[in-house]
Amino acid sequence: LIPQMAPAGLGGHVEGPSRPGTQDAMRAAGMVWMKVQIRFGPGAGTGDAENAIAAARAGGFKILLGVVGSPRDWDGVEDDYIRRYSEFVARIATLGPDAIEVWNEPNLAREWPSGQISGSNYTRLLQRSYNAIKSANPNVFVISAAPAPTGAEAAFPGDVVNDDNFLRQMVNAGALNFTDCAGMH
């Protein structure tokens, strides 16, 4: 069987999908995808995701939602946090985005809990999220988090994992079974 492939096309990451001129500039550049980052945290709702999807659709764009959490919110409650995050991305999947990127730059302490940064720890979140998203809406394309391109692991032990090392750890933990596409920066 040939795995499902994402429709090709150029896109851009925007902060304000409805901001005047944004969509015109994207169209002029030949873009067909719009990426918007959504923050997950305690009590988070899906309003930002709904608004981004509506803005992209109104402009004729495909929509990729990057759903990012906070390392501060899951200190000591990792399993519960992963459960709540995966439930949140499943709710977003029911809204019908074209794709969801699970987290962002989990190889850096500003995005993932310091001292717990590893591709295998991230893969636990990815696996649960992938299964939740596909159960909620099998048509949503799931993209693994793009690690930050870095080689600073030796200089900042526990706070940074080199992107190539992080990706190897993900693959060794089985991440390829839980993503339709690997995110890259």
Description of the molecule:
The protein has 185 residues and is α/β, with parallel strands linked by helices. Helix content is 34%, strand content 16%. It contains five helices and six strands, in the order E-H-E-H-E-H-E-H-E-H-E. The chain has helices at residues 22-28, 47-58, 78-93, 119-136, 163-172, and strands spanning 10-13, 31-39, 62-68, 99-102, 141-144, 181-182. Helix 3 (78-93) runs parallel beside helix 4 (119-136) and helix 4 packs across helix 5. The two termini are 29 Å apart. The mean pLDDT is 92.
What key attributes describe this structure?
single chain; 185 residues; alpha/beta; 16% strand
Q: Helix coverage percent of residues?
A: 25-40%
Beta-strand share of residues: 15-25%
Rg: 16 Å
Provide mean pLDDT, rounded: 92
Shape: globular
**Helix and strand element order:** EHEHEHEHEHE
Biggest β-sheet: strands ordered side by side in the sheet: 1-2-3-4-5-6
Termini distance? Answer: 29 Å
Please specify the SSE layout and strand pairing.
Elements: E1 10-13, H1 22-28, E2 31-39, H2 47-58, E3 62-68, H3 78-93, E4 99-102, H4 119-136, E5 141-144, H5 163-172, E6 181-182
Helix pairs in contact: 3-4, 4-5
